[in-house]
Known about the structure:
Elements: H1 2-9, H2 13-20, H3 24-31, H4 39-49, H5 53-61
Helix pairs in contact: 2-3
Amino acid sequence: xxxxxxxxxxxxxxxxxxxxxxxxxxxxxxxxxxxxxxxxxxxxxxxxxxxxxxxxxxxxxxxxx
Length: 65
């Protein structure tokens, strides 16, 4: 989901990672769902990427298994 929004905003991984204050590798792992963003990071991502409330709710309801 996060990659879709990053591309929609026209951001590279490098630019988004810089805006979020994280490494590109960390962002890659979030986009491939190997890592889950912290609440603070998730809030930043929602704001920077203009993610819809509906998509965030779907993301939060996902079964991690």
